[in-house]
Amino acid sequence: QKEVEQNSGPLSVPEGAIASLNCTYSDRGSQSFFWYRQYSGKSPELIMFIYSNGDKEDGRFTAQLNKASQYVSLLIRDSQPSDSATYLCAVNANSGTYKYIFGTGTRLKVLA
Amino acid sequence: KAGVTQTPRYLIKTRGQQVTLSCSPISGHRSVSWYQQTPGQGLQFLFEYFSETQRNKGNFPGRFSGRQFSNSRSEMNVSTLELGDSALYLCASTFGDRGGEKLFFGSGTQLSVL
Q: Pick from B35, B41, B102: which is nearest to A49 by CB?
């Protein structure tokens, strides 16, 4: 069973701090990794994707991938109350399968 | 550019009935995937269609079915509804011509089975 694991939280951080969200996956063949943000009652919204080992930065967001450790993380710098949401990690197992495995999400609360 | 459109937004059905949900992908996208989201299980993959063909299928019973039309619009059908089918059903689209593409989700259909 291919799995994607996330801590369900809630992860509470003060406004302006760095929020660190983590995700592990079981399938070593996984090649594409995504972070989605989902506000309560809304659909998931893509915020970051990463394909290669290392870091990828986009504004206040940094995705980090370590394929050897089967670990992907998302850092949110200068966290804002509007960042309070559930963050979903998704993994595409093999190029061409078009089947994405999602973690159950980490709920982030940014305290003003 | 219009996003992924799902209809209806909300549905209330009773056990034993059947339901059809509709999804129109982003223009130019030929792959449509369906996911079921529940509080306990998170997002679970139902199936994926590309050019009117089911390319991948998740671990759901045969009561769950789908199809895709030549204009890439997709429908999913759930027959003989059960209480456990109550969930948010999400449709996502991509270009679909290579793996690892970004999924773009619609607003979802919230199905309640009474």
A: B102
